[in-house]
Amino acid sequence: MSEDHHHRRRGRPGGGAAAGPGRAAQTRLRNPFAPQAVLSEDRIAAIHDTALRVLEELGLRVLLPEAVALFRAAGARVEADGRTVRIGREIVAAALATAPGAVRIAARDPGLAVDLAPGAMVFHSGAGCPHVSDRLRGRRPGTLDDFREAMRLIAGFDAIHLMGAAVEPQDVAPNLRHYATTLVQLETSAKVPFVYARGRAQVQDCFEMIALSAGETGLDGPRTFTVINTNSPRVLDAPMAEGIIDFARAGQPAFVTPFCLMGAMAPVTVAGALVLQHAEALAGITLSQLARAGAPVLYGAFASNVAMKSGAPAFGTPEHMRAMLVSGQLARHIGLPWRGSSGAAANMADAQGATETTLATMAAVMAGATVTVHAAGWLEGGLTFGFEKFVTDMEVLETLAALAEPLGAGPEELAFDALAEVAPGGHFFGAAHTMARYRTAFREPLVADWSNFGQWTEKGALRADERATEVWRARIAAFAPDPALEENLDAVRAFAARRTAQGGAAPPG
Amino acid sequence: MSEDHHHRRRGRPGGGAAAGPGRAAQTRLRNPFAPQAVLSEDRIAAIHDTALRVLEELGLRVLLPEAVALFRAAGARVEADGRTVRIGREIVAAALATAPGAVRIAARDPGLAVDLAPGAMVFHSGAGCPHVSDRLRGRRPGTLDDFREAMRLIAGFDAIHLMGAAVEPQDVAPNLRHYATTLVQLETSAKVPFVYARGRAQVQDCFEMIALSAGETGLDGPRTFTVINTNSPRVLDAPMAEGIIDFARAGQPAFVTPFCLMGAMAPVTVAGALVLQHAEALAGITLSQLARAGAPVLYGAFASNVAMKSGAPAFGTPEHMRAMLVSGQLARHIGLPWRGSSGAAANMADAQGATETTLATMAAVMAGATVTVHAAGWLEGGLTFGFEKFVTDMEVLETLAALAEPLGAGPEELAFDALAEVAPGGHFFGAAHTMARYRTAFREPLVADWSNFGQWTEKGALRADERATEVWRARIAAFAPDPALEENLDAVRAFAARRTAQGGAAPPG
How much is the ipTM here? Predict the structure, then answer.
């Protein structure tokens, strides 16, 4: 075997429009597994029904008068406090009847459009981290440079299908931050960009920038997405409610995702936490449909447990996995695409971090999650985006992407002739069947080292997280944005400059 | 929250007969997932049919005259060389008709009996490693002391259901080694012991020791098991053939497991490697039934790929996972319980090792493997048993054991009253529903550290593999064998002493 037997089936680091090796295989993934059912249909119906009771009998505290008015107009009962809203099940049912069962988000490169539809397997990196860490520079508050590097990493991996808010750029003023993060996403990749719901003014700014990047003056269909976290238990705050309304009216999908930590902000039982998750998600989904019937919206699932002593959240636990598996059943029960959640509590990319994220991602995939968020790079329960962790997690996502490819089992793959060619006790290294296929037969690892102990020791006995440093460094160093990405960006930059001169848009509160 | 909120749901380190916390939940596991199908039924039938063609048209080289005679007597065609055996499909079909679809292996503690039956989820540690490693003593050739420590570790984890040959005790002479390993297993745990098929004399010695340990003079039913590896491609050597015959005649289950490395000793395609695996496994299963119709026997699956440049085997890859998933379909096609295989190529318990083993174990579980071998502690593709790796892998197996427990979703777990008790924006820490359940609501981690970054740093910023050292040390230090295990061991020791005085039993060739 010679060196050229190594063939890397990775995408190009540039992340532009052209296809690279493996590109077609990783951009549109179908989940290779049948979704699992861990509860019987009557128990799923019972969770759904109990969630409806929560909305009807206990209600939700809604902190945006405009949202309260929408609920009231639909027939919900509003308490004298003007914010406790009790939502009848017929209102929810009407909303579920208009919410679409599938959403396509267009990208500037048509090949990078994302279908949020049953059977799809979409991956999203770790997101929302105030800190960033890597072995060279340590753990630190995120900056725009870190955000840019994270976007370049994400752009270069075809098995990550959406851009995202990996790292919070804390060195950019809050009233201008959204211009910077949106522009960097648009400069870096043609993948679908992410927008935070941080107040109407910021959201409208971002919509305008994304429309301009597509050569349009307004959004003519889904081109971005956001994540809406309710404030469990049973609070929908003003920015989140406004985000749901604004995204719905603009026809952009929101992932309505209660973050239900069992024993803390949610009941201590998996089923109880899911009742709360389901109630809050249904309330948000209902609000989206009241803002605009037929608006794209995703069911969001993120329930896990906490350490009862410290209250620290945990991920990849049996409780997290079970909650995800049942969430898939609940999402199918209401007929919506849905977002599952991976993640890790680990503080570094060690065996704990790998175990937690691998188990959580596998649970999301087995649950049939349409999109799995926090699937790469999420450390410390989301407080830190780890560059090495991103790389070690990508090994899992690329493995799943390879599993999603069709498995050939026709006469050629069954290899009877090759079996006849090799004598008992022989080997297949030089068989014609092998020679014709060895270059592409197997996925090459990203960071795994298959050397034997002696070779590995000679090379310095490096751990996977140590080797991962070189992987992300090389990826970022080799990054070259596709020139085609620049096509409409002058208009985007001009818009951002004008709005900056006007003072930007401060986030609420 | 006070310290006593921490409740460890682990089994006792002693591993004796009495139940400990979590014991009942982890000893008899049902697979919580529906087995996955990655190929259509007609493609499974095509693999089965092509394997039959391999046996009929190409044949197998069988290096034990006694086995050749059994095949010949059943109607197989034997070449003039006296060892190339072509096995007609009717001979295979007759064998599959008599091989039992479920096997119960009795243990000295009835609660530790193992059911190898559809839907069971049995875990087995890493096995067959010539070397052993840990962070305190480094990597070294295995000794009997290492073997004893590995058995004490295995004994103490209820989610490992079978004893095994974790480490090869190279300091014991080969003609006496089986006395030592069998005795240590019997002294350490009431779990089902493992026996190597290393020649008739050794096997009969081990059977006798196990019978004596149960207070019997002969084996009255399954009480042990072995693993039979064919020599791919298409060779069944003398000790393995003899092992199949001897285990079948004694009514003890053999796991007939070809080790098919795609591109090396097997075709480069997943489907081709599975044709070879299936042909060789069917040959071994057929031999078992020719030796004794109705003998317990398991289908064994262990196909993975190699690095094409170096020939090094890889684990937890897409090819390994796919081969396992299809193997489950093949085992169900022939109606036998089956052995799947986890493992890792990693050289230490880092993120690579955790990713490889977690993915491989998940594939085995999703494939519906009756027993998953090499599920904890296997490093370097089986060259080394790692104590830290064993601990980090046990986090996965204990998580899966927790997933196998029933998930409550009745009115109490749905927690409507708790949801009514906690106001919007409140928390559930002090809720009555939480207080009644917090001690046992969540699985406690084994080696994962959920501390925040500051606390973790103050404690020394230890990686999971570093923390794992303390876990295995504490387990082994706390080990106290159940006095009940000694009941019949004087007779066992007397037998071994007598056989030792007679010169022991050398393994073949």
Answer: 0.95
